[in-house]
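tool_log.txt
---
The assistant was asked to compare two proteins side by side. It first ran the structure predictor on the initial sequence, then on the second. Raw inputs and outputs are pasted verbatim so the downstream comparison step can read them without reformatting.
(1)
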Amino acid sequence: MEPGSDDFLPPPECPVFEPSWAEFRDPLGYIAKIRPIAEKSGICKIRPPADWQPPFAVEVDNFRFTPRIQRLNELEFQLLRRLRQENHLSPGGQVYSQP
């Protein structure tokens, strides 16, 4: 693409790997094997065998989930208060830009 051109050039497609069952028996070993190829593009896609199911990795008996309440309105209030204290926000709510 030439400088100043408005034409968009999409990035190249990433490499796609489709291992066989024999190759995918050890997923981390397979990833180590394809790593030199994948590193050249910075990203890759691995399509596991069609009927592969990832193992269930959560120990149901020991798993505990603690929900947390996010009070987003309080976070917004704190941000607005801090902006007013730093003189970036007028009392009417307009943001001042610094020169």
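(2)
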Amino acid sequence: MAKISSPLALLFIMLSSIMINHIHVASSKTWCIATLIATNAQLQANINFACSRGVDCRPIRPGGSCFIPNNLANHASFVMNSYYQTHGRTNQACSFKNTGTFAATDPSFGKCVYAS
């Protein structure tokens, strides 16, 4: 069996630790968006819930940065993510009765910027 010198072993452990921490940071951004199978009624309920719990819903109102496209899926995704980001970024904060899911890529578009 090959032996590794102490300095080499220490270097390996240090580099491994750096890489593990770097990977964690790179993959730590997640967004909460509506599932494709959520009904319009569920999406509207999610909007109502999030907006009544302190989420700033002005961006999805007419003239807001996330109003266009004017559809429930985009509006719900924006406020669901805002709720998720401001309520601990937990699985439960993105559940929305199983109508929320996680995205690993930023869903922002144009002037509509999703919090991360």
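---
observation on (2): The chain has a mean pLDDT of 86. DSSP finds three helices and two strands in the chain.
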